[in-house]
Specification:
GO molecular function: hydrolase activity
Largest sheet: 9 strands, mixed
Organism: Gordonia neofelifaecis NRRL B-59395
Protein name: Alpha/beta hydrolase fold family protein
Order of helices and strands: EEEEHEHEHHEHHHEHEH
Number of helices: 9
CATH architecture of one domain: 3-Layer(aba) Sandwich
InterPro entries: AB_hydrolase_fold, Hydrolase_4, MAG_DAG_Lipase
Keywords: Hydrolase
Length: about 350
Amino acid sequence: MPPPKLVGVTTVRSRQWRPDELLDRYEVLTIPLGDDPDGEGAIEATLVRQAGSAPATAGAVLYVHGFTDYFFQEELAEFFHDRGYAFYALDLRKCGRSLLDGQQPHFTTDLEFYDAELNAALDIVTEETTGDTGADGASVIVAAHSTGGLIAPLWLDRLRRTDPTRHRRIKGLVLNSPWLDLQGEAVLRTDAVGLLIKGIGKARAKTELPRELSGAYGESLHVDAHGEWTYDLRRKPLGGFPVTFGWLSAVRAGQRLLHRGLDIGVPALVLRSDKSRFKGAYHPAVDTADCVLDVKQIAQWSGVIGRRVWAVAVPDARHDVFLSLEKPRRTAYDEVQTWLNAVFGEGAQQ
């Protein structure tokens, strides 16, 4: 039986890449997604790549961001470029470059909705790096952070079961502090609270949770506060975007699926900090810890995503391990290189 036809992929020649307004030497491609299933009008996603990149000798990386986030991590892209990978990043619908006027930032009521842009991005990446949308050879590493680190393994598990042609293009998964469970008091993870979140999420999806988000993490990162990174505060505000019941219900549904056990079908590397420190306001302690997620939960659930999982705690790393201070950041990159060597037989390249 012939493989299923892959739809929704325009040819390389007909695609309209344009200069990125946020990053020099990068360009973007809009992926139209039609009408929003959550009723916020026309939606789109945005694929980002480095302009004039050298041919990909090792394959490609497709990066997926987290909540209150978008792609700006150029150092991560350079790391993979230096090792022969074409690097692509996807700003999901209503996130970062893809957020349109009148839309609730990052809002969705079902994480599975993201399959549309993930599939389209995978098709584009595959065609541009191998010249064949139906290529069976595994060539793409998916990398994802935080909420993206929940979305990505759920997507790969579905691909393995329902779309093996696409799944065969993926050779590995790198998760950076994935959001695998709900942090906070144990009562928040009870069935009663879960049903409450689900009920409000269904009836009043855009109702915001009555709690103030800490700006400690954002202030630890941004160069205008206490950090060293420059990014657009409209797309990644220091205190984060509001959390809605509909979005949180979607996240909890995804986490429950993950807790039952997935099979992503490819080797995985899961990076996290070695400790969590939660603060209501910036404190130097958050510079050497995850102040967003509970790393014990990440450690607890990392093994359920598949059969070949390499889990690493990076001493003194931040929530985004690749935005950590210099020493833990170098350690995180060393761990990625070690994993590439061990799993794919790729020697260190500088």
